[in-house]
Amino acid sequence: MNKLGLFLTFLCLFGIALACESDYNPNLVTIGECKANDVAHWRETDSLPVVNPADLPAADRTVHEERMAYILSLARAQNKKFVASIYSPAGELLCVGINTGSPNIISHGEIVAINNCTTLHGIKSFTGHTLYTTGEPCAMCASALLWADFKTIVWGTFNSDLLCKICMSNIPMDSSYIFSRYYGLRPTAPVLIGGVLRADADAWFGTYCNRPTSIYYIKPQCACQNTSSPLNVTQTLVNTWIDGNQVQYSQFNAVIRNNANNVTVTNPTFKSLPSGVNPTQIWGLQKTSVADQWVLSWNPMLTPNQTFSFGYIIQGATELTFNAEAQH
Ligand SMILES: *[C@@H]1O[C@H](CO)[C@@H](O)[C@H](O)[C@H]1NC(C)=O
Ligand SMILES: *[C@@H]1O[C@H](CO)[C@@H](O)[C@H](O)[C@H]1NC(C)=O
Ligand SMILES: *[C@@H]1O[C@H](CO)[C@@H](O)[C@H](O)[C@H]1NC(C)=O
Ligand SMILES: *[C@@H]1O[C@H](CO)[C@@H](O)[C@H](O)[C@H]1NC(C)=O
Ligand SMILES: *[C@@H]1O[C@H](CO)[C@@H](O)[C@H](O)[C@H]1NC(C)=O
């Protein structure tokens, strides 16, 4: 035994009652769910469903719409985008919160409302309460709402629209992803209702896409899907590497599939995004004379269920988006 070993043994004997036997070592654990030699990982979890207000009983929908209309009216009156309100389990309006950017950048409407309710009513945990917000909770707020134990969360505009269609900076994530992790904190899932007075809320957010100097603006990086096209493009990252000049490259393989069971698509065209970004190499697709537009290099016809493969190499690690355009 070396000197360190002796010293540790001494420490152990000396402090046996306090330390050695009760020292917790996760690599020797026998009582958790994952055993000593397991790599501990989360179980696979689907995102929580988001209730469409159209599927609610009319009376419930009316209540949610009235409450959403109230925070939208506050938002307009104060000329602020993100406003939240909290209702007690008995349906009483307890407090509101407006994102004014004060005292700091994380003072989102939901956070302000929670703190406001605590100041006004001394509430520390919001079990059974309902929160309304003009815009879907961001990843930070969704986490806060889970910790706060809200029963129901209701929003007007979706995060995906805020970022992809309204060009407002946001963490690109559906709140239902965060909310689906409820099981680490509590036994029951919160109820999510998204898109209450959606058109009004969307109209209030307006668009920042043509206001690139606004502090809220960000150039979206989204995967857009033309729901009226039967063609589906799925991509897989197959390799990424860094060349001698420290430039990163990635290879993506992609499959176009005709999901229609009765429509043959001929000469489809695809638009690539972000605009003006080109792969360093591409096979299976070729450019047309229209900016960002691509056609299939061969077999330009896709029968029902038929697939077509292409691939490309691009600088960086972010895939290009290929959207199916009008079919001929
Ligand atoms: C707190 O909520 C009350 C009641 O809705 C509201 O009158 C007040 O303006 C809110 N305060 C803040 C800081 O948002
Ligand atoms: C597109 O294909 C992927 C992979 O097969 C599938 O997960 C996804 O649901 C499809 N989307 C549509 C709209 O068909
Ligand atoms: C294709 O099938 C869908 C549903 O099965 C149907 O609604 C549609 O009318 C069909 N289209 C054609 C062109 O037959
Ligand atoms: C396409 O695939 C679906 C599901 O895999 C199948 O039910 C359908 O019959 C197929 N249609 C054709 C025309 O092959
Ligand atoms: C979406 O697809 C439909 C059907 O293929 C097509 O008519 C339409 O032009 C497409 N929309 C866009 C914006 O490309």
UniProtKB/TrEMBL annotation:
The keyword Cell inner membrane does not apply. It comes from Polysphondylium violaceum. Pfam families: CBM49, dCMP_cyt_deam_1. Keywords: Metal-binding, Signal, Zinc. CDD domains: nucleoside_deaminase. Residues 1-19 form the signal peptide. This is CMP/dCMP-type deaminase domain-containing protein. InterPro entries: APOBEC/CMP_deaminase_Zn-bd (IPR016192), CBM2/CBM3_carb-bd_dom_sf (IPR008965), CBM_49 (IPR019028), CMP_dCMP_dom (IPR002125), Cytidine_deaminase-like (IPR016193), Dd_Spore_Germination_Stalk (IPR052879). Residues 62-182 form the CMP/dCMP-type deaminase domain. GO terms for biological process: extracellular matrix organization. GO terms for molecular function: carbohydrate binding; extracellular matrix structural constituent; hydrolase activity; zinc ion binding. GO terms for cellular component: extracellular matrix.
